[in-house]
TrEMBL record:
It comes from Pyxidicoccus fallax. It comes from the Bacteria. This is Discoidin domain-containing protein. InterPro entries: Galactose-bd-like_sf (IPR008979), NADase_transloc (IPR057561). Residues 5-85 form the NAD glycohydrolase translocation F5/8 type C domain.
Length: 338
């Protein structure tokens, strides 16, 4: 199979190829594609293949992930969209989930505390994994990226960077109208984690017990989990969302997870964090809880974010399932990764 890669723009450098689009596909997160037209809100990477494939996910290393310094100094993707095409046909636009990062509180004299910068925290260098069974057969795809707004991150350089983008797919056998498995392009631990989620995903509501639990794992009811930073209105909204997805307090925790929580690890970007004890932490897409607060002449939206978290041991067994908030206090801090 052959692939052609192009970018909307590329930052010029004295070193040939230093910021080229192909850097986003070389398997090395220490290299990056960097756009050459910052501020246009039109940064794109395009891939065209010489045959159709069945796309079922993507992996991203957002930003310039060579180091915490290069990551913090460059513009970082915040919103993404993916255009899919079978080749020669009108592309199908697909809005992807937002990317979330660990933020830091900025406190200035005379101003309220707020999260106004991405933290120099190793979790921000973690890959993001998005799996889906609904992306379909494609021959061309285009990833569009929009930088985090400057009220969340004001980088030293305005050029948007992406270190790695790995499409996950099976080849479509045109003659026999079936799919041909190809070796995973991922290395450990992403290879094992993506397999764990893909094996569990299709049966997660009817067979939640298929979640690979470690012998010492203990799951608590999601209705009883302690979230001390979560206001009462948000807790009620969270529990209402559980019930909407057929989870009830009387059910065991595995059933609750399969019905109401596991979906946040599919069709959403999952942050895959490596832990010091050789385990892994998977931070799923958040519950975004919202209410309207009346003011003198209008209503103001108030938000709370709750992230589901799976902790895995070195054998890729689940040891813990949690719900977590950012733990930070200040304006805009609820959006931070825990």
């Amino acid at each position: 199979m052959k692939a052609w890669v192009s970018a909307s723009s590329t930052l010029k450098s004295r070193t040939p190829g230093r910021y080229d689009a192909r850097n986003a596909f070389d398997g090395n997160p220490a290299t990056a594609w960097v756009e050459g037209a910052p501020g246009t809100k039109d940064a794109r990477l395009s891939v065209f293949l010489d045959e159709r494939v069945q796309l079922h996910g993507i992996v991203l290393w957002p930003g310039y992930a060579k180091s915490l310094t290069t990551f913090h100094d460059n513009a970082i993707p915040g919103r993404l969209s993916l255009d899919l095409s079978e080749g020669g046909e009108e592309p199908t636009p697909l809005r992807l989930d937002e990317l979330y990062y660990r933020l830091e509180v900025v406190s200035r004299r005379g101003q309220p505390r707020r999260c106004a910068s991405v933290a120099k925290d190793p979790v921000n260098l973690s890959p993001r994994l998005m799996l889906s069974t609904a992306l379909g057969a494609v021959q061309a795809f285009q990833l569009s990226l929009e930088a985090l707004p400057t009220d969340m991150h004001r980088p030293r350089y305005a050029d948007l960077a992406l270190s790695e983008w790995t499409p996950l797919f099976r080849i479509v056998d045109e003659e026999h109208e079936e799919f041909v498995e190809v070796p995973s392009p991922l290395t450990s631990p992403l290879r094992e984690i993506s397999k764990l989620l893909l094996d569990y995903g299709p049966e997660r509501t009817s067979h939640p017990e298929r979640l690979p639990l470690a012998p010492e794992a203990r799951l608590d009811s999601f209705f009883d989990m302690s979230l001390p930073d979560l206001p009462d209105w948000a807790r009620e909204a969270l529990h209402a969302d559980f019930r909407k997805h057929k989870a009830e307090p009387s059910q065991d925790a595995l059933t609750q997870f399969g019905n109401a929580v596991s979906g946040h690890f599919f069709n959403r970007f999952v942050t895959v964090q490596s832990l010091a004890d050789k385990g892994y932490r998977l931070i799923g897409g958040p519950y975004v809880l919202r209410r309207e607060v009346p003011r003198a002449k209008s209503h103001v939206a108030e938000y709370a974010f709750v992230f589901p978290v799976l902790t895995l041991n070195a054998a890729f067994q689940v040891t813990k399932v949690e719900l977590k908030t950012s733990g930070l206090q200040g304006e805009n801090c609820e959006r931070s990764l825990p």
